[in-house]
């Protein structure tokens, strides 16, 4: 079921159109000003999907690169860029093992996408791929790293655009506590001007606990841990977390 939703970029974008990309990129720039050791001209979005963020980044005059394993998502993103008169480069690759020709100055991964890496070995490979793709002194921002794994509450919301209505239901269930595996269920109920569709996705994800993450980071030895910060909905400025929150950002800097 995994690819059913991801093969429909328009409905996927509408479902998550509550994202305020302008506010998010504003915060990117504030993180850069405070923590980056290099000048930032080139951004890389890992697991980019339709990436409202890259569109805003390109609009501001930066180089924008989107990496995803889905050809349909990348084609859709390129088309959206052309419609707005902006250039977005795309790279079709798996986020665990990838290479880009020209290194980025700032790398980011959004909406908990980091959780689709299924084991620690692959997570270390992912960090190596990011390190190879990011200039020294540049930042790697990870959004919505699962911290509060004891409180998975079902969520449902409805978004509309151009006569298309999408009701989204998101649910997470514990599958295997010994191996830290959860099952994620996502359902989109689409009303496309009278045409009704039901799109589903079900997949397993691995939780990486916070101290486990720090140990893996130390083992990788390619990044400096700068901290956990409040997420985009909580703050317009880099603000460190005072307690566990599902809405959070991890910030790393390339050694």
TL;DR of this structure?
By secondary structure, the chain is of the alpha/beta class. It is built from 7 helices and 11 strands. Helix 4 (52-59) links the parallel strand 1 and strand 2.
Can you walk through the features of this model?
There is one protein chain. The protein has helices at residues 2-6, 9-15, 21-35, 52-59, 71-83, 120-133, 210-220; strands spanning 42-46, 63-68, 89-92, 104-109, 134-143, 155-161, 164-176, 181-192, 195-206, 223-230, 248-254. With 255 residues, the chain is an alpha/beta fold. The chain folds into two domains: 2-147 and 209-254, 3-Layer(aba) Sandwich (Rossmann fold), CATH 3.40.50; 155-206, S-adenosyl-L-methionine-dependent methyltransferases, CATH 2.20.130. The protein has a seven-stranded mixed sheet with strand order 3-2-1-4-5-11-10, with helices on both faces. Strands 6-7-8-9 form a four-stranded antiparallel sheet. The protein starts with a helix and ends with a strand. 35% of the residues are buried. The mean pLDDT is 95.
């Amino acid at each position: 079921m995994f690819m059913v939703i991801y093969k429909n970029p328009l409905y996927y974008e509408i479902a998550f159109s509550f994202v305020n990309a302008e506010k998010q990129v504003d915060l990117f720039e504030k993180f850069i000003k405070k923590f980056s050791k290099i000048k930032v001209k080139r951004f890389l979005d890992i697991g980019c999907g339709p990436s409202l963020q890259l569109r805003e980044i390109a609009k501001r005059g930066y180089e924008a690169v989107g990496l995803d394993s889905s050809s349909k998502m990348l084609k859709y993103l390129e088309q959206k860029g052309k419609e707005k008169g902006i250039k977005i480069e795309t790279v079709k690759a798996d986020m665990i093992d990838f290479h880009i020709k020209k290194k980025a100055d700032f790398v980011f991964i959004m909406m908990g996408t980091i959780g689709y890496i299924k084991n620690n070995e692959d997570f270390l490979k992912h960090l190596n791929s990011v390190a190879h793709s990011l200039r020294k002194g540049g930042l790697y921002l990870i959004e919505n790293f699962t911290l509060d794994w004891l409180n998975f509450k079902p969520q449902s919301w409805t978004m509309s655009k151009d006569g298309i209505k999408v009701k989204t239901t998101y649910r997470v269930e514990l599958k295997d506590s010994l191996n830290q595996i959860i099952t994620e269920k996502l359902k989109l109920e689409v009303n496309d001007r009278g045409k009704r569709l039901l799109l589903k996705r079900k997949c397993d994800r691995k939780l990486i606990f916070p101290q486990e993450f720090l140990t893996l980071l130390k083992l990788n030895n390619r990044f400096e841990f700068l901290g956990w910060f409040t997420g985009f909905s909580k703050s317009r400025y880099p603000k460190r977390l005072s307690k566990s929150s599902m809405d959070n950002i991890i910030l790393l800097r390339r050694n």
